[in-house]
Amino acid sequence: MNKHHYTMIETLALILNSKKIRFNRLTNVDDIQESKNYGKYDLSRFIYISCWTINEEESIPLWKMYTSDMKGVRITFSYDPFHMRKPNPSEMPGLNISVTDDTLSPIPLNQMMSDKYFIMPSFLMKEHFGKAVEYVDDVTGMYENAVDLKVNPDGTANMSIPSAGDLAIHKNKVWAFQEEYRYNLLAFPPPAGGFSTQNIPEISNAAINSIYRGLAPETEFIDVDICPKKLSCLTITLGPLCSFADELLVKALLEKYSPNSRLVKSKLSGQIRQRT
């Protein structure tokens, strides 16, 4: 299944140069209601997402919403764009993660822990990383009970997030035209003093404390590696109102970073009047 992403030419340049896809915090998406669907323990600032569409036909609304005056590009990957690799538990001694022969991760274990965040490896439990958005009549309160957090009499606490891998995948039907496919990450601030083999058991406590106090990671985004093989065979569609100069710029970017990729013109070229 192809995944398409409408964006600016400048963003294409950053993606090609960094070889990464940026996940943005859920509180920054277009649909303001998405960050208001959680209950007492608000997870919206802990969720980072990358948004795509699976609609093979070009979308005038998506060109209009996510490119500059319909002069951007549509980036197309065949299947998922990420570099799926078997996790290496030795990268993080002391982290109790079960890895089987068919376990794949878009992020190496040692990159899940940084000085800015800890990424919960909930995607290791799923058959695929990513899921199509489900459009419903009313999304209000859909994730109100997403967090089960109980404070014990002795001051300790227990927490579980039963559907950690299935958060932020429902939207109201008014957004159905997007035919969206999402990749989600759940991230928490690192434990005090950073990560070490000795304090890995403190990760759970740090996550519980951050949700209880509403203290999300400071970073607004997380960058994830693109599969090198898939980056070498992109299809880039020029926006319907791209100029010849825009086309030259995109060609130069592909020649430098992905010479085997394909550049095509929009099927809507010449069909949309440019407003002045």
TrEMBL record:
<protein>
    <recommendedName>
        <fullName>DUF2971 domain-containing protein</fullName>
    </recommendedName>
</protein>
